[in-house]
Amino acid sequence: MTYDLVVLGGGIIGLATAWRWSLRRPGDSICLVEKERDVAFHQSGRNSGVLHSGIYYKPGSRRALDCRAGKRMIEEFCQDRGIRYELCGKVIVAVDERERPALAGIFERGQANGVACERIGPERLAELEPHARGVEAIHVPEAGIVDYPAVCRELAKSLCATGADLRFDTRVVRVEATRDPAIVQTDAAPIRGRRIANCTGLFSDRIARASRVDVDARIVPFRGEYYDLVPAARHLCRHLIYPVPDPRFPFLGVHFTRRVDGSVECGPNAVLALAREGYNWRNVRLSDLFESLTFPGFLRLARSNLRSGLGEMQRSLSKPAFVRALRKLVPEIEGGQLIRANAGVRAQALTRDGALVDDFLVVTHGRMVHVANAPSPAATASLRIGDEICDRLAQLD
């Protein structure tokens, strides 16, 4: 048969796209293709579970707008489906005077993006997070936490209820996207579709190239490693405690996150993964590593962030170094209170000149829409991003 829509990828973006399409066009046939045995196997199931407020992002950018709208949509979805979430609030902490200007810039962005937030002093910080230390902070009461794997499972359940075809353990080889219908060649059988959505995350650029489109960016995988606080130390973090991010480095820095099950996660750092699904130093795929190390964009990024990058590697290889970074926020942390937790790999698009693609990037070619870059806060914004992909797919009629 020929499906009205074929979605490649069973993460939260692919599931959201398929589900939003099923609501728009209830009679359409939908096929979702996933190479793993279940949904949310990678980024969607390995992130920190934060409902982001949108405070960090450039005003007017897709990340800012989609985060704000998507957060409301996720909250409504969780309320309707009985999925655990909590608007617990977060603090972004300046640990010394040098960080005050950057903290002020974050606050200005938050105000421009319509985020409910306030600047607070050490006394108020001590009320909110008694074990955190800093000279000033931003309190974001509307930030929250959610069970994203549960969201993904519920989306998959809803799709199955509409008659959608979910094909697991099926790997996409290439796509003939300029034909009508398009042909998705898999390691099983070909699948025909009038519209194709490429939501394959870490492999989105490869699927794009396999469908003969160049999105002018390359996915470079960065591993984020975490520790969990032992139960006896969970009182050290009530909700979410973040540092002021280094503006010279594209990640937010190690932080504390209380999860919906009551556990507390510490991290992540950010190091180059040695495979696109390289969750530790032993996971090495030479073809993936060669592709990263020979890409001019990564080499330029590495040169311009050498000191920060070496610090991230040190925190990866040395638990005491990781603990020292955490102590800047919570001085009472001890190494014995931390146990290694699951790592995640972030799919980050880089241009050839070494610039990180700083916004969501969606490209249409032939009968296909490619999600070429969807970094954090993509999970928070997923339902809104799904709507925008559907808008593009509808134009292929």
Question: Could you please describe the fold and organization of this structure?
Answer:
With 397 residues, the chain is an alpha+beta fold. Helices cover 32% and strands 24% of the residues. It has helices at 12-24, 43-46, 62-81, 100-112, 122-128, 148-161, 204-210, 286-293, 296-304, 306-317, 319-327, 382-394, and strands at 2-3, 5-8, 30-33, 50-51, 85-86, 90-94, 118-120, 136-140, 144-146, 165-167, 172-176, 182-186, 191-193, 196-198, 218-224, 227-229, 240-243, 255-258, 264-267, 271-272, 338-340, 344-350, 361-365, 368-373. The strands form five sheets. It has an eight-stranded mixed beta sheet with strand order 7-8-6-17-18-19-16-21. A six-stranded mixed beta sheet has the order 10-3-2-14-24-23, sandwiched between helices. Helix 1 (12-24) runs parallel beside helix 6, helix 3 crosses helix 12 and helix 10 (306-317) crosses helix 11.
- Mean pLDDT figure: 95
The tally of strands reads 24
Assess the beta-strand content as a share of residues. Answer: 15-25%
Helix content: 25-40%
Helical/strand content category: alpha+beta
Shape, please? Answer: globular
Low-confidence stretches: none
Number of helices: 12
N→C terminal distance = 18 Å
The strand line-up of the biggest sheet is: 7-8-6-17-18-19-16-21
Task: Tell me the radius of gyration.
Answer: 21 Å
Sheet having the most strands: 8 strands, mixed
Please describe the topology of this protein.
Elements lengths: L1 E2 L1 E4 L3 H13 L5 E4 L9 H4 L3 E2 L10 H20 L3 E2 L3 E5 L5 H13 L5 E3 L1 H7 L7 E5 L3 E3 L1 H14 L3 E3 L4 E5 L5 E5 L4 E3 L2 E3 L5 H7 L7 E7 L2 E3 L10 E4 L11 E4 L5 E4 L3 E2 L13 H8 L2 H9 L1 H12 L1 H9 L10 E3 L3 E7 L10 E5 L2 E6 L8 H13 L3
Parallel strand pairs: 1-13, 2-3, 2-14, 3-10, 6-17, 14-24
Antiparallel strand pairs: 4-9, 5-9, 6-8, 7-8, 11-12, 12-13, 15-20, 15-22, 16-19, 16-21, 17-18, 18-19, 23-24
Helix pairs in contact: 1-6, 1-12, 3-12, 10-11
